[in-house]
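Per your request, structure below.
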């Protein structure tokens, strides 16, 4: 048959090209190469003194050779990733060093080789073993997408050609496929002798080649263009290779292809516009400016807010104080005051009340009293104008203030107390030492008669000023006890204000700092977030507080929730807006669209940057805000009056996500999505709108005959489908190619994965107010409970008591009234059936052990690795979840009931309630020995003739073996078991 008359399955394998600005990220050796090899122009202009070892001709030759080497390495990096670049550089440099003694090598003489080796000397070589299973290994998107595509192929009938432009890429790609954990048992690199003959005879199943193989006539089931064909002839010749019952023809396609404008603008984002790491932003909005303006208004509305301090829930009557302002403002609810290691006070703000009777005389008096409080613990003289923006007074009626000032204002000579034989209760000041404030301890009298000398023993007031942070152990060690001074009583003064009340002056900076923060949060909530409707202002305050501000809370935990909501919402929008995209395109575009640059631009476009709290509270440098300073700040010549600051683009993006998280904690998913829409109007498909996208007129899955009895499965999953074809799709494996009317479950599984995150999120949110979980711990918990092995375990145990006679697919037939979800999977070929039966046999052996650990023990890492479930077991859990989400019109409660029935959510509750440790054994072992050195796990496959392959794993601490296991069925099991050996060994130390 003529090749052009055949029918081909033409597919595109989409990938994201690497960003040029990040060249070298993930490739330590490429970074070293770029640093140690000068640019081409620099090489050409090097002085003869530096190149005396070789001739002019050799100089030009070495220049070209080094330039080509860097160019080839960068090309390998862009095509295959950091791991590949390291492999290529290591192989080339190692070969050059090994042959350094040869007289000639590829046109290089000894002098040339010596120079090149000198240039490349700083490059640190690897240990010679490429570990592609390492979690931090960097692969390009192009290689990963090729890998995923190859793994979907039926191994029993697979024979393929991969055409690559560059010979170096051929060599490195072949090596990667032979060492990558996913393909090393399927594709093994071999010598090139008789390659074509062995391929034709079926002894080899994959050839990676350049265009030179185009003219050969070989039969195969798959041809992949790794690079775009250069000519029409190339395309026709390669298509001619595919003579197979189910031929496939694929081309690697960049997502930035000009032929795909819709992909780049699917949500209206500008995908190409980058943002610098540091961004010029507006200065934080200053609420004291408006308060200053209110003081100068003709008829301000005065308000009084009383503050009470509690020690162990007992009111301290001596520490009551009130704030007076010219307008009603939002106040904090409570402020924890960490006085010292033993004492924590709680400042509680009572509701503000109008001060209708406040007159100008009272106002001047209150300003004087405010000055008394600010001056009390300080030696610095206060502003003589006393035009404070925020006024303080004792919690008394206005007609009692003058008497209070008479009693507590001013100073006395210390000797007057001695002459009256009384101990002063106010702050003692040594006028000879800049009126440094001291606390009186006792009198010291020496001498007799007319030579009596009176001294006083005093101690310093507490040095601590940042009462918003608990005192650390290091601060406690460095501070030490209060210093004792003995000073002459003559010349000393003592404040009339009792020392205990004077300590209120120390707390005012902390009070005003938290007041300013809550006023900023209120302004943001009333402006940008007005339509979102967040009720609890503390959520907004936490979301806009950066870690660098060192407040009691910051946005990190809220960012975790917002990030999950963002990914879920974008995943939904892409799923329903792009019904023709496969799951790979959906995942890649979702990851692209949730990048920080889009969120950072959203923050700038909405003006959010002026509400971000990034200034650290520094009470020792703090001064009380003054009206004159807030209203009369002169602008620098030639500059705008609006001050600016620099924030990182990551902070801008983090705060957007944190505000989405704040909205989620305040009002659930609908409020969170409203907040997200405020910053990203392009996102306009919400959970509440899903039903409009699955109506009979627009449902892309409707209209096909259901091949699965949804009524029978209702007893298994606890949900009855209105559109049974959705359930059919959710249970259709990609291998089921004979059914052209039904898509496989991969698209719906992509959606179900996002839905699963949203079911876990509310359970985690319940623990945020209790302060029991950090962001890191929540991330670990979420990852552990959506673990594929765990989901597969629940899948294999999920069943219902229902007669199976109505089932329409042979693979669903059962001999009892117990119907299991896994039995309903639709697939093609014996491979999956054999894999499923083997997995179920392991499940029968391990079910009780895993269930016991889940009910009473630690997280079952080790038995889950022995279970080794195939991916389709966890996939159908997520695909059924996605199908329920679609069929129910986005009803997360229906989805929640399914996962409750499966058993996942009850287990999540137990993990959270009992604090089950979910740290992976590998990470735990590395943490235990981190002060001793670097712990590395190395696994290898062990093959014995006539027996199944096993795995050996060793734990190396500073390259010395400290534990090892063998005979494991998988590398994952071997690594977990050896990690537990390390943990056990460390526990005995």
């Amino acid at each position: 048959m003529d090749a052009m008359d055949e029918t081909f399955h033409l597919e595109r394998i989409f990938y994201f090209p690497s960003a040029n600005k990040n060249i070298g990220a993930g490739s330590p050796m490429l970074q070293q190469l770029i640093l140690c090899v000068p640019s081409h122009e620099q090489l050409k202009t090097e002085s003869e003194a530096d190149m005396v070892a070789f001739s002019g001709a050799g100089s030009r030759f070495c220049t070209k050779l080094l330039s080509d080497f860097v160019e080839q390495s960068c090309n390998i990096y862009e095509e295959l990733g950091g791991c590949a670049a390291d492999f290529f550089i290591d192989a080339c440099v190692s070969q050059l060093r090994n042959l350094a003694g040869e007289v000639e090598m590829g046109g290089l003489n000894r002098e040339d080789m010596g120079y090149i080796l000198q240039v490349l000397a700083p490059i640190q070589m690897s240990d010679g073993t490429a570990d592609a299973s390492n979690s931090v290994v960097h692969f390009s998107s192009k290689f990963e997408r090729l890998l995923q595509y190859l793994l979907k192929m039926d191994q029993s009938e697979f024979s393929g050609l991969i055409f690559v432009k560059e010979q170096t890429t051929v060599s490195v790609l072949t090596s990667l496929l032979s060492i990558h954990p996913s393909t090393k048992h399927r594709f093994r690199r071999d010598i090139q002798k008789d390659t074509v003959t062995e391929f034709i005879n079926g002894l080899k199943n994959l050839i990676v080649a350049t265009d030179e193989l185009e003219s050969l006539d070989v039969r195969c089931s798959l041809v992949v263009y790794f690079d775009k064909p250069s000519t029409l002839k190339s395309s026709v010749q390669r298509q001619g290779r595919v003579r197979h019952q189910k031929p496939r023809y694929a081309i690697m396609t960049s997502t930035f292809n000009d032929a795909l404008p819709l992909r780049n603008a699917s949500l209206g984002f500008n995908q190409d516009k980058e943002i610098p790491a540091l961004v010029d932003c507006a200065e934080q909005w200053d609420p004291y400016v408006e308060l200053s303006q209110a003081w100068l208004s003709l008829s301000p509305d005065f308000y009084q807010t009383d503050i009470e301090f509690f020690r162990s829930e007992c009111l301290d009557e001596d520490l009551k104080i009130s704030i007076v302002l010219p307008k009603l403002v939002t106040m904090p609810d409570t402020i924890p005051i960490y006085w010292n290691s033993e004492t924590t006070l709680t400042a509680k703000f009572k509701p503000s009340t109008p001060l209708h009777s406040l007159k100008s005389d009272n106002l001047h008096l209150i300003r004087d009293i405010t000055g008394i409080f600010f001056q009390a613990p300080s030696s610095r003289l206060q502003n003589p104008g006393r035009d404070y923006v925020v006024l303080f007074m004792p919690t008394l009626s206005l007609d009692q203030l003058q008497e209070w000032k008479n009693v507590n204002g001013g100073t006395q000579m210390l000797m007057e107390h001695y002459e009256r034989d009384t101990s002063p209760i106010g702050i003692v000041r040594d006028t000879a030492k800049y009126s440094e404030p001291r606390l009186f301890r006792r009198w010291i009298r020496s001498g007799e008669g007319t030579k009596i000398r009176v001294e006083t023993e005093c101690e310093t007031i507490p040095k601590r000023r940042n009462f918003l942070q608990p005192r650390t152990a290091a601060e406690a060690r460095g501070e030490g006890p209060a210093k004792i001074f003995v000073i002459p009583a003559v010349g000393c003064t003592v404040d009339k204000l009792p020392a205990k009340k004077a300590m209120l002056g120390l707390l005012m900076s902390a009070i005003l700092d938290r007041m300013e923060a809550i006023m900023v949060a209120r302004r943001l909530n009333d402006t940008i977030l007005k339509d979102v409707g967040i009720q609890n202002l503390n959520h907004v305050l936490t979301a806009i507080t950066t870690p660098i501000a060192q407040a009691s809370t910051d946005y990190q935990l809220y960012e975790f929730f917002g990030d999950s909501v963002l990914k879920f919402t974008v995943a939904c929008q892409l799923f329903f807006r792009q019904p023709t995209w496969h799951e790979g395109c959906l995942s890649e575009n979702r990851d692209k669209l949730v990048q920080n640059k889009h969120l950072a631009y959203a923050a700038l476009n909405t003006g959010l940057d002026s509400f971000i709290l990034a200034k650290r509270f520094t009470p020792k440098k703090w001064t009380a805000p003054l009206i004159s300073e807030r209203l009369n700040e002169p602008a620098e010549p030639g500059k705008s009056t609006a001050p600016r600051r620099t924030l990182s683009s990551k902070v801008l993006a983090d705060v957007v996500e944190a505000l989405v998280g704040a909205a989620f904690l305040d009002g659930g998913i609908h409020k969170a999505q409203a907040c997200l829409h405020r910053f990203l109007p392009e996102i306009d498909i919400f959970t509440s709108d899903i039903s409009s996208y699955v109506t009979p007129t627009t449902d892309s899955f409707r209209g096909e005959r259901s091949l699965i009895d949804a009524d029978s499965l209702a007893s298994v999953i606890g949900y009855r489908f209105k559109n049974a074809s959705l359930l059919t799709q959710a249970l259709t494996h990609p291998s089921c190619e004979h059914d052209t009317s039904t898509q496989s479950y991969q698209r719906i599984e992509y959606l179900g994965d996002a839905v699963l995150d949203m079911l876990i999120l509310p359970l985690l949110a319940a623990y945020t107010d209790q302060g029991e979980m950090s962001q890191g711990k929540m991330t670990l918990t979420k990852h552990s409970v959506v673990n594929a092995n765990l989901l597969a375990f629940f899948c294999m145990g999920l069943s219902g008591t229902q007669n199976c006679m109505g089932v329409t697919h042979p693979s669903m037939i059962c001999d009892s009234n117990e119907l299991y979800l896994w039995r309903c999977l639709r697939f093609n070929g014996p491979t999956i059936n054999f894999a499923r039966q083997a997995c179920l046999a392991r499940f029968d052996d391990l079910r009780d052990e895993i269930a016991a650990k889940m009910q009473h023990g630690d997280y079952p890492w080790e038995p889950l690795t022995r279970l080794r479930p195939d991916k389709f077991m966890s996939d159908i859990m997520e695909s059924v979840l996605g199908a329920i989400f679609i069929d129910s019109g986005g009803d997360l409660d229906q989805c929640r009931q399914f996962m409750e029935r499966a058993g996942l959510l009850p287990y999540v509750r137990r993990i959270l309630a009992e604090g089950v440790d979910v740290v992976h054994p590998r990470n735990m072992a590395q943490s235990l020995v981190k002060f001793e050195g670097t712990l590395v796990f190395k696994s290898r496959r062990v093959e014995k003739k006539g027996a199944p392959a096993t795995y050996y794993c060793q734990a190396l601490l500073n390259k010395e073996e400290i534990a090892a296991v063998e005979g494991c069925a998988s590398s994952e099991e071997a690594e977990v078991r050896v990690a537990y050996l390390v943990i056990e060994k460390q526990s005995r130390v």
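Residues 933-987 form one domain.

Regards,
D.
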